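QA checklist item 7 of 12: single-chain prediction sanity check.
[x] sequence parsed
[x] length recorded as 234
[x] structure emitted
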Amino acid sequence: LEELARSVDAARTRAPAAALTAAPRSARMPLSHAQRSLWTLDRIDATGAAGAAYNMPIALRADGALNLDALQRALTELARRHESLRTAFRRDGAELYAEILPAQALLPELHDLATLAPVEREAEAARLQQGEMRHRFDLDAGRLLRALLLRVDAQRHLLILTTHHIVADGWSAALLVDELRALYHAYADGGASPLREPALQHADYEAWQRARVDETALAQRAQRSRERLHGAPT
């Protein structure tokens, strides 16, 4: 407790952290430390089934008549609003960088199961969902939001949204669902987007984070890790 108290006192005397503000964009944006780690893990198994281990699927059920045009507009607006969902993660020699791609229409992959018998319908829906969850993302290509829409019958649809953990987490998933719901209902009613334009994007956080990192201390920690791992299996 005494050591913790001293740490708290020391932290209170430090200069306040720089404010998180919008950063300039370039053709090659830096990756955050977490994104570098996830990119490396993705490359360890670039072709096998484990390559989809960091897929983040979200299943949503829609009861009642579905306005497909409103849904397509809502998905497209989601990808436009959030740069992370249209970011490519690439390597040029030893350099890792992120490229924010232009916004484009995001259309769900639609499968109509209504013509199948009820038992076949459930089996095919399960097969398509499993296939979507196991379909790996190409981080080089970007476009890190996919939508699979299953039409069970005229009054029941299942929407599977899939993102990659390099750009999303549990908080992000909840935010995407809330925004999709708000956008869909607004467009279905003939209105405009009710959402405010995001003031900050993940690239702004990355720039803020990098400005706060003590590179010397980071290098020392990395060296200590190498020493501890010396002699471990490759």
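[x] summary fact logged: The first strand starts at residue 55 and ends at 63.
[ ] second reviewer sign-off
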